[in-house]
């Protein structure tokens, strides 16, 4: 029988790490270790996955929250944005509703939220200032994670229902935006004066990540030899990020659970191979990556 301890990953034995089927997970890890970095690709959400849920005792801003929490934004925008969040966030994390039941409400939330941003007189220069002053933080150990993926030429697809321009700014300021990283998200459309006039392309919300054009593009086709995929997410909708990777043989799903833990833990354990509860670091993921890369 396979046991996690065989691979000497003590981070997986911590109380805040939950694994429903340790034997199955051990087999996946062993396969990834055997194949090393040559067959690996990573697909990750950003908000509350690569970025922290909380820092120094305070809840951090998501990419949308960076604007909602900023003193640089109009008060009318912030009031309306918070009202939307108060209305729809409980629906997103309502364990009694199915994803199909939640989708119409998520579409309403994103549609109304993006309309608020478009009408807020936001500029490219102001956006940079807002991000610089924000409480958005990459997880502890995220810089090392990015460095290793780049060093070993492992593709990283950051697939987010948040704001791509803010992801770009956060990663660029707090780490390095490497050429092996691709960001698929909701990107702002600026006019010739640098003012936001809308969004580029189709809207990405938390439950339609399987429908985005990246799945019909040549992204996954170009890396189909990378049959091992590590998926990192913090919502059930994130599980669909890799549906375009049809040639994947070995899939390891790692979920971060930060919110309404008691209500959602069992459902997360059913959906993710490894569930990491209320941890603001990349320690568990980095320990897995260390083993896969043969560094210990």
From TrEMBL:
Protein name according to UniProt: 5'-nucleotidase
Annotated organism of origin: Littorina saxatilis
First-tier enzyme category under EC: hydrolase
GO cellular component: cytoplasm
Keywords associated with the record: Cytoplasm, Hydrolase, Magnesium, Metal-binding, Nucleotide metabolism, Nucleotide-binding
Swiss-Prot/TrEMBL catalytic activity: a ribonucleoside 5'-phosphate + H2O = a ribonucleoside + phosphate
Taxonomic classification: Eukaryota, Metazoa, Spiralia, Lophotrochozoa, Mollusca
UniProt-annotated location(s): Cytoplasm
Family as reported in the entry's similarity comment: Belongs to the pyrimidine 5'-nucleotidase family.
Sample GO molecular function, one term: 5'-nucleotidase activity
Entry keyword annotation includes Metal-binding: yes
